Amino acid sequence: MRMTRSSLRFSIVAGMLLAALAGCATQPKPAPAPAPAAPPEAPQIPPLPPPTHPGLTLAAVGDVMLGTDFPENILPDDDGVGFLQAVTPILSAPDVAFGNLEGVLQDGGEPVKQCKNPKICFLFRSPTRYAAYLQAAGFDVMSLANNHARDFGEEGRSSSMAALDAVGIRHSGREGTVASWVANGRRVALVAFAPNVGSNSLNDPQIGLPLVSQLAATHDIVIVSFHGGAEGNGAEVLPFAREIFAGEDRGNVVEFARAMVDAGADLVIGHGPHVVRPLELYHDRLIAYSLGNFATYYGISVEGIRGIAPILLLTLDDDGRFLSGKIEATTQIRPAGPSLDPAKSVITLLRTLTGTAFPDGILQIGEDGTLARRVAP
Predict the structure, then answer these.
(1) For residues 140 and 183, is the Cβ–Cβ distance under 8 A?
(2) How many CB atoms lie within 10 A of CB 376?
(3) Residue 32 DSSP class
(4) What pLDDT score was predicted for residue 34?
(5) Are 58 and 95 in contact (CB under 8 A)?
(6) pLDDT value at position 116?
């Protein structure tokens, strides 16, 4: 029987519907959308170990150079093993011991620094094994910001950094470097400045001020070290002005140190003049403008006042304020290393220098080296 057009249209439409329904029945269901990923967990900051006593105790000294083997071998007879023996009990007792490392710790290599005047220009290179002697003496952190840190270029400073790292001594000095660690349950930072190429700049406040402020926001105690000021006899008198020495801008150290305290530093330690300079208590924070030559073998003069230096012993409270202190007087009589000075010559000198520079200052240095706030009459 022949189908009509209407019947044909119906059949076609019905067939199409049936085909569509069959196709839908065979298509897989779409996969469900993946659940959103859980946010990453914030890194867990390990809790600080509890302090063993209130505040923080420190020992600070000036220039340290245990001997050089360049341009000729001028190393101690016992290879430096006992050079710091007499002062080790004092350096190793506090929570933190600091010194300024003059020269580099490097085995071999040629200097990059060129000396035009050998009477005022020297090169220092100590073997890398000497880092172990520094660690054994009690040093925890050292400055690598000074005019000898690059005697053998940045390669030499890198060698010093690696040698100190190998024995667990922290350091700061190269531009952008900061030492950060925990001592007696406190987060401590040290940043070292110098007016020399490649170091955290002493003469650019746009570098130092924000860096110290940032460290103060993230640490309990902030220590600033600086290498600045003129050198030699006569440099023990603080000029309260910018100093130019050997053609170099050695900074205005009073202006710098006080600005660092204003930015958040709790202790400021100076070195560079190879003689001691006054101490100051500024906004309850101690500033030592130069701690002189502490342990410097042949190559750095220790004649007269260049051969006497303090071990500055301090106690800071939990906020970094000065609580108390004491000067242990040392002297260098070659070929020995630093030893305790029965005459206490450096205490007498620091009492005079500090009283002259800050006649109205609130820091009092006793005849026995005790540091305290001056009691108003």
Answers:
(1) yes
(2) 5
(3) P
(4) 62
(5) yes
(6) 66
Please name which of 313, 225, 210 lies closest in space to residue 263, comparing C-alpha atoms.
210
Amino acid 36: pLDDT: 63
Specify the pLDDT at position 122. Answer: 81
Residue count of the chain, please give it. Answer: 377
Find, among 332, 224, 231, 223, the residue nearest to 272 by Cα.
231
Q: What is the pLDDT of residue 47?
A: 86
Angle at CA of residue 235, ends 231 and 239, nearest 5°: 125
pLDDT at position 7? 43
Q: Which long-range contacts (CB under 8 A, 24 or more apart) does 342-347 make?
A: 344/368, 344/369, 345/308, 346/276, 346/292, 346/308, 346/309, 346/310, 347/310
Burial 29-63 (b: 16+ CB within 10 A, else e): eeeeeeeeeeeeeeeeeeeeeeeeeebbbbbbbbb
Report residue 114: phi and psi, to 5°. -110, 125
- Does the domain spanning 60-373 belong to CATH 3.60.21? yes
Residue whose tokens read 């520079």 = 357
Supply 376's token pair.
């108003």
Strand partners, 365: 371
3-class secondary structure, 141 = strand
Stretch (H or E) spanning 348 = helix 345-357
> Could you tell me if 273 and 39 are in contact, meaning their C-beta atoms sit under 8 angstroms apart?
no
291: number of Cβ within 10 Å: 29
Q: What is the pTM for the complete model shown?
A: 0.87
Mean pLDDT per 10-residue segment, the chain (377 residues): 39 42 48 62 76 97 96 93 98 98 94 69 91 98 94 94 98 97 98 96 95 98 98 97 94 98 98 98 98 94 97 98 98 96 98 98 98 86
Which tokens hold the place of 346?
């450096």
